[in-house]
Amino acid sequence: MRGVLRPGLAICARPLGHAVLRGVVILTLAAWLALGCWAPAASAEEGMWLPSQLPGLAEELQAAGLELDAGKLGDLSSYPLGAVVSLGGCTASFVSDQGLVVTNHHCAYGSIQHNSTPANNILEHGFLAQTVADELPAAPGSRVLVTLAIEDVTARILAAVPAGARGQERFDAIEAAEKALVAECEQQEGVRCRVSSFHGGLSYQLITQLEIRDVRLVYAPARSVGKYGGEVDNWMWPRHTGDFSFLRAYVGPDGRPADPSPENVPYRPRHWLRVAPGGVADGDFVMVAGYPGRTSRYRLADEVAHTVDWYYPASIKVSRELLGHIERALERYPDARLTLAPMLSGIHNRTKNNEGMLVGFDRTDVVGAKREFESRLTAWINADPQLASRYGDVLGELRALVAEEQRDREQELYWGIANRWPMLGAASTLYRLAQERRKPDLEREPGFQERDLRRIRERMERIATSYDARVDRLVAFDRIKMYATLPAEQRVAVFDRYLGIAGGGGIDEGALNLKLDAMYAGTRLDDLATRLAWMDADVDAFAASDDPFIRLAVALYPVELEREAKEETLRGHFQEVRPRFMEALIAYQRSQGAAVYPDANATLRVTYGNVAGYHPQDAVWYEPFTKLEGLLEKETGVEPFDSPAALLDAIRAGDTGPYALASLGSVPVNLLSTLDTTGGNSGSPTLNRRGELVGLLFDGAWESLLSDYDYEPERVRSIHADVRYMLWVMDRVDGAHRLLREMGVEPRYAAR
User: So which residues are the catalytic ones?
Assistant: First the structure.
């Protein structure tokens, strides 16, 4: 069990034994969690560490090669963490005092596509703003989020929960406490606040972020650089992908966050990363700071078994079917491919990730190891009467909740496919907004408060460049057919009646096609001005509407409320039981002197390790760097191996400038490290021992995908775009000399 079965060193206190547990376990565990007092793993590469934990890791970091003051490394207001930002799903970092932000090409993909047209397809050909005035608006809803403060609020959250509260009551109490904290926090101008839970609700943190809302696209290489290798190379090594792009953060003339406006000026960050043009070598210390999304290292064996045996196979099956339907529709309407490019990329990426997970699970018995660990934990609890009194059969309680959660798995999967239409989604969001606006703001559902109106508007705007009614109409038919394979008792009766699906699941295809034709012809929600106008409409206006998607959304509203209440009741039970399980697990591990750190949850983390190759299989060794010549070996001239002619000419000319790695004899393109990362880390800056930028993390190796559940130090490798390749492409191929100088790098080829 990753991060749980391996021994470690205590940071804040000696290992916790039974004598310490008796009478004080609840208070001390909460305090340790609030202070970030987990033990570091025996393997330095393992662990996505909270900023508050880094001072406690000072000896390990310095022994690993860090030259910065490790005691100050976790300071959000200092270098380098002060330069690391979230894009909301990806990570990025400031690289100049003018708000210039570097991230992955695939993280800026939506904004590149948003600004592309058939006549000016910058997704295909790339984009470089020659001046600041030429920079393009990023996709609606784009954000640069700068973390300003992290405060432990565990006591305030749990104090709001009535004694003995369970299920819906517990969920509502926690949600109300979180909303109150957020409302209090957002009295500060220009910030966005949220409460994040750790270890399933054992502790909570209030996170305050500066929310920069005016984001612009500055530079993106061509698709055949930024997405080189496409889905063929995705998650694979060796890799030759220039997965980097640049954005810029803008604020009002007063320096405060503002809506996009021509009057805005570049943001002046307190810190920005220094670029190290010399990069790193094999074995060098590296670290990454970023916002990893989700890991599941403390899930029960039953949860992991369900994921392996059912969820991943089922998800892969339906995703492949859906991709087939979309591709067939695009054969009929090929001009829609540009519009749907981000959606297609996302489905492909998620599907291949799931396939890689299954390969990893076939290689190792994660479920068996977890069952063995749970047996030891149960025996430890039962051996001490006080522990048994405190934790009881917490594992049995948690297993029962997991079984209940999995009971409706088919319905959840296929209903998610059936109702995921952009127009139905828009109608449902707008109608829910009308319903929620009848309540006081703090009583509204999260996502529909006054603080959320701007984001809802941006979602409505984003549809304009990501939706094609012709393709959506064809694929809607296929989605409904997939959903109709469910037994009648698992389907949604209101939905079935509206679309004319028979009780046994039979579909009159002719009638369904006529119904869908009428819905798409009769809606006006495909018009942006109409969508935005509905944001101000009241419930009565929705009830009187003859728009077919609005009528369906109104009919489904009671069903969705019922489903939501059921989900919240179950979540409330989990919020009661899982923290007790994690408390027991942490106490047991500390009694054994072993490491426990929190699962990733989209909060700021740091991980460190080294540049290193690995053995993926018997008799095979992967070097830690790829080089320019590898592009020539892969090149076919056909997508996805179709590099720009200027890039190929420069490689053939041996024109590496100052960007070559001597031991490699060429410019390194991508590099491998032992860093512990996951989704959300995309775009994270790769830093050297001095905290300087030496690359961008963008992927994990195929053999590493299992690391969301189980850490295997000999196999886990992260893939990074090497800074030397980034600089070489910018300098030699694309002529981004203005940006290089802005980052403090003198171009070699500016005079050509």
Answer: 106, 243, 682
